[in-house]
């Protein structure tokens, strides 16, 4: 019985393959709309000024690299909770752990959800590709509902709500807190209330993926819909990524929170997070979380960070508005792209269109048609719109 030959073939990550293709293209005007990170007007993903300042402070003051434990840094967890939740929610019925990025927060969430064999998780399509892998890996039953229509650029509200109506008590529903990846589609306040009502009536467990807070409408606004649902839920989980909001991608910084009915219950939730953390990565890396805690604990650094985040958000918004103005001249439905939020939108392009854009115009995006607006410089919008518009 062989080991390696018996393993299944694994397809390379299509986004990583696209990055390689882009790197080997030597046309000077090539444009990368595939990458999943924020880029500034110079096409760079810089270290935020508040992060640099925090790192400087840590370098001067950190006096040990000793272990911190599977739950991570409790100061980071409680400072982050103040940013993600509203006042009434930060009580003894909320607790969390630091994780290596949002991915590990989702993985720990999947582990505790999978403890009940009868539980399924409802995932909208399309979604971030890794969601499926994370939930499938722990053996959680996955049910899907159609979330978005690329032709109309609208959320399929009725399909989503009727899927939640058909879920069983105790099932989990996965929701993106804001800046939906890959569609950018925003859920209105009325629809968040409708979701909250179903969650409460049917006893569903919302799992929020909060990976882009601050890159949508505003740092506080980006979690308002989530708060509506959390207040209605009996129990809930929130997976937070600091990768985008603090531009800390490679530092692997995030947190998983549970909201429950008692301090005892949430302590049990956290103990189970810690158990699964120990069994896989033992404990999260310290640096990114120490940076975030150092930013959040100091009013000056926090303001520097919030202001820089606001300027990132307005750059994305400017590109979004300019691109929408031009594309909607070719296809009126695309006017809806202006109301979307975050870095991404999903354009109604075929794989043939996408190959054409890459080969003829040097414009790179994955076959899904997801574009990262932050990959564009303002002076490129006209050229890109004309290339895409001809195909619509
Ligand atoms: N959720 C979504 C929707 C994402 O897009 C990402 C990153 N691409 C993550 C979670 C995970 O982020 P990370 O593990 O890098 O913090």
TrEMBL record:
One Pfam short name: Aminotran_1_2
InterPro entries with a match to the protein in the record: Aminotransferase_I/II_large, Asp_trans, PyrdxlP-dep_Trfase, PyrdxlP-dep_Trfase_major, PyrdxlP-dep_Trfase_small
Annotated Aminotransferase class I/classII large domain residues: 29-388
Keyword NADP (UniProt): no
GO biological process: L-phenylalanine biosynthetic process from chorismate via phenylpyruvate
Sample GO molecular function, one term: L-aspartate:2-oxoglutarate aminotransferase activity
Top-level taxon in the UniProt lineage: Bacteria
Annotated family: Belongs to the class-I pyridoxal-phosphate-dependent aminotransferase family.
Protein name as annotated: Aspartate/tyrosine/aromatic aminotransferase
Source organism of this protein record: Jiella flava
Native organism taxonomy: Bacteria, Pseudomonadati, Pseudomonadota, Alphaproteobacteria, Hyphomicrobiales
